[in-house]
Backbone:
């Protein structure tokens, strides 16, 4: 519930039907995603996209504290692209919403 409210707060008014058709449905095979991320993190332990992915994966489970740790690692994993730092901190903000009760 907190996540929907946060999206609405920042003006998200997406077309769910179009988005669902575009990405192939709302559901994702979480176990498959976990396997792909685990395999790729072994190959690329500092891969910022994989670290962000793991953060999002544990966030949906919900394990906000673990997600925050992954987002911090993602922010420190690279120095070339400032926008990826912003993505890490934005995701951290969303994870913090999960810590509130």
Residues:
């Amino acid at each position: 519930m907190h996540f929907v409210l946060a999206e609405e707060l920042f003006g998200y008014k997406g077309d769910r039907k179009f988005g669902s058709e575009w990405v192939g449905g709302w559901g994702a095979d979480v176990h498959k995603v976990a396997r792909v991320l685990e395999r790729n993190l072994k190959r690329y332990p500092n891969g910022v996209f994989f670290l962000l992915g793991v953060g999002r994966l544990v966030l949906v489970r919900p394990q906000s504290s673990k997600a925050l740790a992954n987002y911090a690692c993602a922010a420190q994993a690279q120095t070339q692209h400032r926008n990826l730092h912003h993505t890490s901190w934005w995701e951290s903000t969303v994870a913090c919403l999960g810590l509130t009760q």
